[in-house]
Amino acid sequence: MATNYFWTINPLECYPTSSGETDVVFTAHWQLHADEEVDGTTYSATSIGTQSIPLHSGSAFIPFEELTLPLVQGWVEESMGPDQVQAIKDNLAQQIANQINPPVVTLQSPWLNTTTTSTTTTTTTVEEPTTSTTTTTTTVEG
Length: 142
What we know:
Layout: E1 4-18, E2 21-38, E3 41-52, H1 69-80, H2 82-100
Antiparallel strand pairs: 1-2, 2-3
């Protein structure tokens, strides 16, 4: 199956004011997630980082409240460049491939694999019934 990739970007670091604008983004904290389903099992990997967002002079400023994930994702990918984005995706795909077919496994030493048999003994105590007589005396004063 194909590996699916998706971004989460949060938080955004901003200058309170810059070039007459407010809340100007200069760094994005990102996560690129990958997942792949094989035979009903989903394998996943994540890469995290930060990316500087250059201020583009001449570009129309977009107010902070109007930013969207696709827009900021575009800034992050553009700032990284296509080779770096592809390298991150390749790394995530390799992590998933290693989960599916591990290149290294850790096994217990064979001399530690001993089978033990456990025997449980249960003791039941039965108390003999006892007989007791209760006498109730009622005194009526008249």
